[in-house]
Amino acid sequence: MADATPQPDLRQEVNEILRAMSELTPLYRQVLVLVAVEGLSYRETAEELGVPVGTVMSRLARARDQLRETLATQPEHGLPPAQRGTAR
Amino acid sequence: MTKAPYPTEDELHAFVDDELSASRQAEIASVLRDEPALAQRVAAYRADRERLRSALRGIAEEPIPTAWISLIEEATARRHRAMMTRRLAIAASVGLVVSAGAIAGWRWLRRDTILAEAEAARDGRLTGRTTALVEPLPPVAERDTRLQSALGMHVRVPNLNRFGFQLARLDLFDGRGGVAAQLEYQDSGHRVLTIYVRPSDGNVRFDLLQRDGTRVCVWQDDVVGAVIIAPMPAGEMLRIAASAYADLNL
User: What is the Cα–Cα distance from B207 to B219, expressed in whole angstroms?
Assistant: First the structure.
């Protein structure tokens, strides 16, 4: 039978991500969980939260930015560095 | 011919999620072909997204969160039940279900405060009750806000839709034992599942119990304590408890 427990490296990464997610504001964490964990579409997320799709988009982008910034302070286990900045 | 608007940051993330209209997806793809630096950033966003999704999907699919295994071990060590610890740890790692009716004796249960509170709340015997939400329920954000405000903690109302359970009501308690909340869910078969949640009293634990035809899952970490009660098999309870644990803590 397959072992569903994550490997140690993945578990460490998961813990780092969870720790970083816990530092997000509830509004950002909420939208990230609905999209990234529960796999809802933007429209479904907007309906769940009772907000416009545009709000979901902006919160999600900021949540990912903040998550990346937090994880960047944990270089060994953070997400791969992405060039940051505004689109133009 | 009018040039397409340059993509915003929000749009770049939506592009990665394939959430834009087909025409806008095409416009942004065209911009990316002309701007390697921007394309590189979008590729990094895509990698972030997949890595995050992969990591968090691992949590959702775990039969029991790994953190719970240590709670099981700690709680069991305190009660000298090494054999049951091994059985539960094995169950956690391979997804087996252990009949847990013998985990705790009735003598111990009678001293079990959070469980006694949860059962009293479910039976309508817990004092200091006010009903905060009933159907038709407000949007998720408002539900979370009510729960967070009542408990003074950053917790979310667990979403059990994928298990067939819909939230029916939220009751709050402010009695001698402090603040607490009971979330009541129902499925299409009229089964009632309750989650009693309150700030932790510091007694870190994890237990899966069977009482008559009802399954009970109790967990408590340093921050939050919760008791889930429902008439269902242990395997179903563990899957729901794992999801509820993640929802409450994320």
Answer: 6
pTM above 0.80, yes or no: no
- Given this model, what pLDDT does residue B37 score? 94
To the nearest 10°, report the CA torsion of B176, B223, B84, B55: 150
Q: For chain B, what is the mean pLDDT?
A: 76
Rounded to 10°, the helix A53-72/B36-61 angle is 90
Q: Is the CB of A64 less than 8 angstroms away from the CB of B250?
A: no
**Model pLDDT for residues B182-198, shown as the tens digit of each residue:** 999 999 999 999 999 99
Q: How far apart are CA B105 and CA A79, in angstroms?
A: 46
> Tell me, what's the ipTM?
0.76
For residue A75, the model assigns a pLDDT of 53
Which residues is A17 bridged to in the sheet? none
Residue B149: how many CB atoms within 10 A of its CB? Answer: 11
* Cα B219 to Cα B72: distance, rounded to the nearest angstrom: 9
| Residue-range domains of chain A with CATH | 14-74 (1.10.10.10)
What is the pLDDT at residue A19?
A: 73
Question: Does A7 contact B at CB distance below 8 Å?
Answer: no
Chain A residues whose CB is inside 8 A of the B57 CB are: 37
* Max Cα–Cα distance, chain A, nearest Å: 51
Token code pair at residue B190:
């009229």
Q: Is B210 helix (H, G, I), strand (E, B) or coil?
A: strand
